[in-house]
Amino acid sequence: MKNITKAQQEAIKKLFYDDELESPHFEFDCSKDKYSIRISQMYDYVIPAGGKSMLSVLQEIAKILGCTNGDEQSRFGYGGCETCDYGSSYEVEYVFW
Fold this sequence. Notes:
31% strand, globular
């Protein structure tokens, strides 16, 4: 598979970030048979921007990458400080092929 281009990365980032939310961190990876997108952020679960459904976002990512299949690979959350939630971390990984 080809590397994920900068334009593709930016298009995918826009699906998960708008100015009202904490900016998530993205990691893009490509192997010979799949693409991997890992998204993490503090304070809240990773969700699509603009109230879109996760299904529509996954379909849009698959289209951006030229893939016909995609799935959630893993998801986890780590609670932070009991009083202010500082240090909390939430992460999800999606794979496409």
